[in-house]
Specification:
InterPro entries: 2Fe-2S-bd, 2Fe-2S-bd_dom_sf, 2Fe-2S_ferredoxin-like_sf, 2Fe-2S_ferredoxin-type, 2Fe2S_fd_BS, Aldehyde_Oxdr_Iron-Sulfur, Beta-grasp_dom_sf. Pfam families: Fer2, Fer2_2. Keywords: Iron, Metal-binding, Oxidoreductase. This is Xanthine dehydrogenase YagT iron-sulfur-binding subunit. It comes from Labrys monachus. The structure is a single chain. The protein is an alpha+beta fold and about 160 residues long. It has 5 helices and 5 strands; from the N terminus they run E-E-H-E-E-E-H-H-H-H. Strands 2-1-5-3-4 form a 5-stranded mixed sheet, with helices on both faces.
């Protein structure tokens, strides 16, 4: 039996102490141990982007990150985007206005990537948005709407 260690994780501004095996990924810690199922498991091998979260403001794939690696850093998930008075984050609002999803499974990862893409200054053209969002796959093929949503949110942020 593998031993567990207590990890102290900061998720969406709240501190959590979790007894986990060292091999547990950040994705499984979020979904299975904290009930934060907004972060999706698609491929579980770093290829689809559905599990994208922010760690200290940088986008990471939670399926390729051990929970232990996130200790001492600020993790933000889709559940952590709420604005005062329950308003949507501007990128969430842009996804709604541009109809940038169909089944919605990839949407949390798309939105977390889009926020980082804009913050990184990589949303200055549609080509740039396509390149820097290319790690997030959409099986429904909503890409033109996703690009439009990122462009709209980037314009609002500038
Ligand atoms: Fe992490 Fe697909 S579930 S990249």
């Amino acid at each position: 039996m593998t031993s567990r260690t207590t990890l102290h994780l900061s998720i969406n501004g709240r501190e959590h102490a979790l007894a986990l095996e060292p091999r547990v990924t950040l994705l499984d810690a979020l979904r299975d141990h904290l009930g934060l199922t907004g972060t999706k498991k698609g491929c579980d091998q770093g290829q689809c982007g559905a599990c994208t979260v922010h760690v200290d403001g940088r986008r990471v794939l939670a399926c390729l990150t051990l929970a232990a690696q996130a200790e001492g850093q600020a993790v933000t998930t889709i559940e952590g985007l709420f604005e005062p008075e329950g308003r949507l984050h501007p990128v969430q609002a842009a996804f709604l206005e541009q109809d940038a999803f169909q089944c919605g499974y990839c949407t949390p990862g798309q939105i977390m990537s889009a926020i980082a893409c804009i913050r990184e200054g990589h949303a200055r053209s549609d080509d740039e948005i396509r390149e820097y969002m290319s790690g997030n796959l959409c099986r429904c093929g909503a890409y033109p709407h996703i690009v439009a949503a990122v462009r709209q949110a980037a314009e609002m942020a500038s």
